[in-house]
Write a structure and sequence with these properties.
The structure is a homodimer.
Chain A lengths: L1 H10 L20 H15 L9 H10 L4 H4 L10 H16 L4 H16 L3 H19 L4 H6 L3 H15 L1 H16 L7
Keywords (chains A, B): Hydrolase, Metal-binding
Catalytic activity (chains A, B): a 2'-deoxyribonucleoside 5'-phosphate + H2O = a 2'-deoxyribonucleoside + phosphate
Cofactor (chains A, B): Mn(2+); Co(2+)
Chain lengths: ~190, ~190
């Protein structure tokens, strides 16, 4: 029991990992714990639109664990262009440490969910990636492009970076976003890159 | 698709609903969105200790939706003694409104999970309640009784209010907590009521 308690208290640190997006109507930055909850809800709501039939429970479980490595590494904006390999190695070390706090059975289950998300090779992982990529875009669209403007992210960079994973996991959502992103561009909600 | 987007943006408001507990090491109060994520992780980790065999996916799904009504009602500390019936009626009205933003199939699924949690009559709901009740206690135990001291909550009140649901859903966790709560009392981490 103490191992599980140590693990869950370690997870508390994800509430202090900040992202670039701000929650609607709040001045502070979003943290990765509340983001993990919201993308699990997004995936559960979007399930009928998955590109292929998915086990939605595994999608939700993957989304709940996929950012836990950020406790050691911090969050990196999806539009960063360098250092992804080093970052992925650091995240693997982080989840190995953090899931390693648990009894072996639970550690193995979470590690396998985390790895499935990273590999992105199952229908469930592809759908989970679509939800994860789409959420900050949806918040930016509702927030006059807040984090795009603050971080100088162009329309082309957004489309190039998030288009393929969203189209692959949830094509109907991508069709929706293409139109909204074009409208956002007309509004001047993007940076110049 | 627009209905799902409207729903998920409405959910963003749960990030602004504050609770009495503070995340470890942070000055701010915890919000109900990050709390929902953490109790889903607690339940998933604790699954082998459930009082009865449970479908852990349904437990997780219940925990992810159970606080959504607080978007309209705000959070009430579990030790509040009055107004629970009015509060429950208000929460029902809230989730009816919020889930009602979704297409009927998704609305129905979330409402049925929410209602199962409220009714507390299945093994899954009892285990979910145990995780929900235990989490702020675990944070308080790791935080020198922060919210008990700040809100004048006595040891007797904690044991009376959270003992039965935790014992019913996860007896091994209650055995663990009884000892830790006695130790906390010796440390003077409770209010006088």
């Amino acid at each position: 029991m103490q191992q599980i308690i140590d693990f869950i208290l370690e997870l508390d640190k994800l509430k202090g990992v900040t992202r670039k997006t701000r929650p609607l109507g709040l001045e502070r930055q979003e943290n990765s714990a509340e983001h993990s909850w919201q993308i699990a809800m997004l995936a559960a709501s979007l399930a009928p639109y998955a590109a292929e039939p998915v086990d939605i429970n595994r999608v939700v479980a993957m989304l709940l664990v996929h950012d836990i490595g950020e406790i050691d590494t911090g969050d990196t904006i999806v539009y960063a262009e360098d250092g992804w390999e080093e970052r992925k190695a650091a995240e693997l070390a982080a989840v190995t440490r953090i899931f390693g706090l648990l009894p072996a059975a639970q550690a193995q289950r979470f590690m396998s969910l985390w790895q499935e998300f990273e590999d992105g090779e199952t229908a469930e992982a592809r759908f989970a990636h679509a939800a994860d990529r789409a959420m900050p875009v949806l918040l930016n669209l509702a927030n006059n492009g807040q984090s795009w403007r603050e971080n100088g992210i162009s329309h082309a960079r957004v489309v190039q970076r998030i288009g393929p994973p969203i189209q692959s996991g949830c094509p109907a959502l991508w069709d929706y976003l293409v139109e909204r992103l074009a409208h956002a561009q007309q509004q001047g909600w993007f940076g110049a890159d």
